[in-house]
Amino acid sequence: MSIQTQKKPISQSELRSLLLQYRNENWKGIQPPEVQQRIVDDTIGGDATGPLRIVQEYVPITPRSRILDLGSGVGSFVVACRERGLHAFGLEPDRIGAGAKITSIEIARRRLADPIFVSGIGEQLPFPDECFDLVVMNQVIEHVTDQKRVAQEAARLLRGTGVLYVACPNYLRFYEPHYKIRWLPLMPKALGRIYLRLKGRSPAMLDQLTYTTNARLAKLLNSLGPEFQVVDVHREQFLRKRSAGTFAGRSTRLVARLSLLPVLGALLLWIILKYGSVAEGGCEMLVLRKPKASEA
């Protein structure tokens, strides 16, 4: 386990230069230059606190909470948390950047003065049991070698009524979000490599991916044990809007009202939720540690 030494954070212009260098070195052949440029712009100017807004609907996150971003990349989520006075840390294996002149964890370490970014792997986290209130895995679980082991390690770190946030692509869509191209749902890797080469793309990223879907992610997280509760965020958001009648689209409001009908409504609701779990672009779930008997 290695930790950065304290130093002055880099400027926004320096950050931009490093991000462009990093993406040119590590994503060449995976994404076209214009996409990489847009991602750099979004990284600098975007709001990385999305997971916090979701989690805070279920449990409070305060300045006393300890937060770990597992797979912290160039540190955007951790930096955003720290700017809000939150006690956040990051861990990054940086498999994509291995051997490159600049890696994502090096960029992250230059963005903050405090030594809060640790190098390591999700299958063997260098932290004691029950030491974080929130563990975030945002677009990470599809990249790890042993998903079950990583999920178990992340859950091990949750203390009290801690929360694990997991978001990843849904590979039942006709789209691959890393390459930003059309894609057959769950396309066999051998066929995918041929397809990528025909498109002039490198298959290096594909070799690092494990396909994820809502059903597969739910099964993985539910296997963590009875002391945890799994919440499908998209499903709960739909049910909440259906109950309150707050859908923006007219057709969606109509379907939601029909799902409230007796008998047939229950069948329609099941179809809607099933369709959503298949067609939506990504998976977003929470694992909530249930209070122990002594805490209840």
Could you walk me through the main structural features you see in this protein, from its secondary elements to its overall organization?
The protein is an alpha/beta fold. The protein has a single domain (12-232, 281-289), classed as Vaccinia Virus protein VP39 (Rossmann fold, 3-Layer(aba) Sandwich). It starts with 11 loop residues before the first helix and ends in a 7-residue tail after the last strand. The protein has helices spanning 12-26, 33-45, 50-55, 76-83, 104-111, 147-156, 189-198, 214-222, 233-244, 250-258, 264-279, and strands at residues 66-70, 87-92, 117-119, 132-138, 158-169, 228-232, 282-289. 39% of the residues lie in helices and 16% in strands. It is built from eleven helices and seven strands.
Short description:
With 296 residues, the protein is an alpha/beta fold.
Give the SSE map:
Blueprint (H helix, E strand, L loop, with lengths): L11 H15 L6 H13 L4 H6 L10 E5 L5 H8 L3 E6 L11 H8 L5 E3 L12 E7 L8 H10 L1 E12 L19 H10 L15 H9 L5 E5 H12 L5 H9 L5 H16 L2 E8 L7
Parallel strand pairs: 1-2, 1-4, 2-3, 4-5
Antiparallel strand pairs: 5-7, 6-7
Named at the architecture level, the CATH assignment is 3-Layer(aba) Sandwich
Strand content bin: 15-25%
Biggest β-sheet description = 7 strands, mixed
> What is the assigned CATH homologous superfamily?
Vaccinia Virus protein VP39
Order of helices and strands: HHHEHEHEEHEHHEHHHE
Segments where pLDDT lies below 50 for 5+ residues? none
Give helix % range.
25-40%
Spatially, the strands of the biggest sheet line up as 3-2-1-4-5-7-6
Number of strands: 7
What is the 3D shape? globular
Q: Give the tally of structural domains.
A: 1
Number of helices: 11
Instruction: Output the structural class.
Output: alpha/beta
By CATH, the topology is Rossmann fold
Radius of gyration: 20 Å
Tell me the span between the first and last alpha carbons: 36 Å
So what's the CATH class?
Answer: Alpha Beta
